[in-house]
Structures are given as C-alpha cells and as structure tokens.
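Hi, here's the filled form for the chain we discussed.

Project: internal
Contact: R.S.
Residues: 314
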Amino acid sequence: MKKAKMISAGLMCLMLSAFSVFPSEAAEKVTPGDVNGDGTINIVDYIRLKKHFISGADNGNSDEGSDVNSDGAITSADLTALRNILLNVTDPGSSNTEEPVTEYPIDESCILEPKGTIHTGEGTFYGGGYVGGCAMLDPVSTDYWIVAMNLEDYADARLAGAYLEVTGELGTINMLVTDLLPEGKKGDLDLYVDAFPLIAPVEKGRVPVSWKIVPLDIADKVPVSYRFKEGSSEFWCGVQLLDHRYPIAKLEYLNDDGEFVEIERRRYNYFESMEMGPGPFTFRATDIYGQVIVDRDIPLVLDEKIEGKSQFPV
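And the returned structure, exactly as it came back:
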C-alpha cells in the first residue's frame, strides 16, 4: 500500500510538472497582440487576426498573442483590443472615436507646387458642373461656386475637388473644381455662369484671371470621406475621396501582406482596383503637398458617403 501511494505521488508530481500553468524559465513569453510571435506588435498582426475571423485560418498565429485582452478566449473582442493598441487608445471601452493625431513623413514625390502658387489664364463661363461634371462630384452643394479646369492643370483628376481662390477685375471668389475644360490652355478656367459676374463684367465673356489653390473651407469641421462607385465589389472596386483639405495626389490600400499598394487613378476622379478584396480597407492618401493621412476600417458600402477619422493638416 505504501509503495502504491509512493508511485501515485510520483505520477502526480510528474503530471503537475508537465501541465503546470507556470511557464518554464526556458519558455519565451509572447506579448498579447503579437499575433505572429515575431516580437513586435504592428499592422501585420492585425491583418493576421482579422483573416482568422474572415476565413478561419490561423496562419501560424500564436494563441497567447491572439488573446489580446487576456480573457482566455480568442474572439472579435481581441480584434478590437488590438486595433486600440495600434491606435494608442488607452481605454478600449472609451466612446472616443477620434483618430489619434499622427504625423507621417512628407512624400516629396507627390509635391505638385509650393503652397500659395499663383496661376494665370483666361476666364469664361458656362452653365454646367453641378450635375454631370467630369470629376463626378455631383450632387455638389449649391453653397459652392463651381468651375471647370483646363486639361493640363487638371492633370488626370489630380486637381479634381480642388478649392480655388479666383480673382478677376471685379473681385475674388472661392470655387470648387468639378469639371473639365478640354479646349482651355494652361491656367484657363470656365466659371459657372452666375459666378462670372462676381469677378468681371459679363458682357466681356473672356477675361484675364488669376487663381491659387486654397484649403477647403469646411476641412476644420469634417474628416476626409470615401464614396465607392456603383458596381464595386471584392472583385473590382472604385473609390473616390471627398472633403479633403487639399487635392489628392495618390491613394494606396493596405494589402494582406501588410504592404501599401498604389491604386490607379481615372480621369473621372475615381481610384480603381481589381485586387483590393472585400474590405474593410486601410487607406493611405497623400495630397499635392506630400502630406499623408491614414484611415482604417473603411467598409465597402455602396450608395453612402463614409466618413474617415483623418484630415490633412493646414
């Protein structure tokens, strides 16, 4: 009997040793949030964990790293907790949805011109642009005077949605670029018919004008927004940016490998791709002054203007 008890006690010690909840000194501890166990927490971990919930694949995920909130289970709450870590949100239960202010390096390859550059050309007028403009921004609020821009300055939609300060002999007005003036020379603008008399006598018809790019006047109150083109899906997607302080030079999306990929731009002011997938998307946008913003978790939703959480600096 004593021998049996001694064997049982030995087995018990062996079992406790094998299944102890205390890690051995040799074991490497994985930090919650380090999903792939590479020693760092970054967007690649977020993508891995998100793919787990979309497809069920673990891709070699670490259980300890995937249990971000350390509650003993891997659920969508861990995905939210990891997102909060990446966004530097200290209280995951907070109702504050503001994107932390992040400064990204200037992308000098996207700089079009110095801020405040003055352009000169001729101004004319026409009756379109609020609906059916080349930049496909309609319906455009009647709070804005709208203007069509020559092909060279429009630059394949680089200045689509630009906010301009236009000056003629009678005064200065602010205008939104919504359309194209194919026959115009560099510097030329075609103003909406009711706006033209504010800068020059209407009977002149064609007058000298100067203009410069200025910040969108509502940019301090709203973030950049996104609109997906009709017919967009996981197999083909068109996306347009709205309410940006300055014109957009480049748009990229974050792929499944954690790399930003530039999206091809069309003249009609949509960025289009056949590789983006079903979303939600992380977008990185760069304006014509090289300033960069990043917006995360933008869902693929049609017929709706989707607000981001970022805006370009002044």
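Let me know if anything looks off before we file it.
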